Amino acid sequence: MFALGFAQRRPPAFPELNQNCEDDAGPRWLDDSEHFGNGFYWSSSDAKTVLNQDGTCPGPIAGACQTRANPLQAALEGPISCPTGGWFCRIFPDSNHGGNSRQGLMGDSNYGDCNVNSPNWEETNHDQSGHCHGSNEPSTFYWWVRDHWHRGYAGRLKCCCSAPGSKNNWEPAGVVNRCDYRAKVTVGADNCRDANEDHDGGRMGSGFLYGFEDGCPKNGDLLDFNKIYEPADEMCWEVLNFGLLPDDFSGKDPTVTTTGPCSGPGSGTRGSCNGQGVFSGAQDVYQGGNSPDTPVTPPVVPPTPPTNGGNEEDKPEDSNGEVEDKPETEDEPETEDKPEIEDEPESEDNSEDENESEDDKESEDENEVSFTVSSSSTCPEGTYVTSIEQCFDAAEMLGYDPRRTISQVNRPRGCYKTKRGQVFFNRNIAGTDPSGTRYSICQTTGEETSIEQDLESRVLQSENGSCPSGTSYITTEEECEAAGELFDVEMRRVFNNARRVRGCYIFNERLYFNRNTEFTTTETSRQSLCSSN
């Protein structure tokens, strides 16, 4: 006998449509039999799903439990059955399974829960609760779960069917403040790079077209708890010990499984919060509900959200175990995020202005202030933006989204942008950004060197996917895009993938920027753009 060649490989029996995009983490779906034999990618894991107290499967996966190998497979792979077809999943950090690893889940946390222990809307205006994704296409569920399992986004997975009447048949308004979207691949898996980021059927370069970004319901600066909820158990299913453990996490106790809290956001389903639920793991079969052989540890139960005010002790901990500072907040909630700044009225008394000479105009043009994005969270002294009006002007000029003013010591001083292109103005002049994920917006004048001019003198194209000694990797999307203009290539996409060349590079005469800094290569199909030191 001989091994099947590439063209002769038989695809797995499920699912029917291959939506395995190029940047999806883990082995290729078509190679599953080679990697896992007669098993599955989760077969050797400690993952468990939570069953009903009578041992039956939750409604959204009840049909799948009749056809799949066991309830865990149904919970991880589906097919799921939701009233609107829409679904959304949240991955919550688990101190015993991934913790607050910045290489794993919390390195790509992307949403905040709405059901918080505070009446203030500003307490939900952050993205540190975990990772949220959803879709109005049920067939995408399998592919999203598989991708995020292999990304090492380890934690506790809670998925729910979207409520009837949800916008676009999936958006989780009232549950979270934002949630990313996974598109159904209609262009063929060979033509799809990342359906989490390219939403037109997975078409490469189509970009973010959908996604929930509406924030939590509020009245003025207070949360509207009448519109905030945690989905009912009947709409949800869970997987404990979800995902591969990231490299920087140690101390896993395989004899312990942590369940969800008894109340609040992401609460454990089906009476499992006390550790006494009915669970089914990778080696179990569907036989009316079998409990695990190992003890299950319930978490500390958070208090029920009050109707008036929380306290400092209720704030979540950050990855260092320290209490987080307040998230970026509105100073004046009654004002819009993007206030219109009125031009100063013309002075009738200053007749000299009316007779302004051409020389004066040219001089003004030469000294006209422009703006550039720094490669770090600081500006050279004398170039910090000093007012919110100027900061919002800069955001508009640079094509970003101006948001609001804050005063935080753990954010960059002055005007800065986030990785999502949102611009804030921090009045705290002692502010610094320890995370390295926010970039200052600085002033330049006609007499100063712009970012493009600066790059032109120091950017070079490597022969391969690494930067040679004496040069450094380009670290921001803005610098990469400006560097690409020097080589007459347009930005194709920005992404985060440990299996692709780090930083800024050219591939097939197109420009890419990879936020992940792990991978370099001497292979020559991808050429890094580097900055001379």
Written description of the protein model:
Helix content is 13%, strand content 18%. It has a 7-stranded mixed β-sheet with strand order 5-3-2-4-8-1-10, covered by helices on one side. The chain has 3 domains: 1-305, no CATH class; 360-448, no CATH class; 458-532, no CATH class. By secondary structure, it is of the alpha+beta class. β14 (414-417) and β15 form a beta hairpin. α2 packs across α3 (71-77). It has helices at residues 32-36, 59-65, 71-77, 140-150, 351-354, 358-366, 388-398, 451-456, 477-486, and strands spanning 48-51, 87-92, 131-135, 155-161, 180-181, 218-219, 222-223, 236-242, 257-258, 278-281, 296-297, 370-373, 401-406, 414-417, 422-426, 439-444, 459-461, 471-473, 491-495, 503-507, 510-514, 526-532. The relative contact order is 0.11.
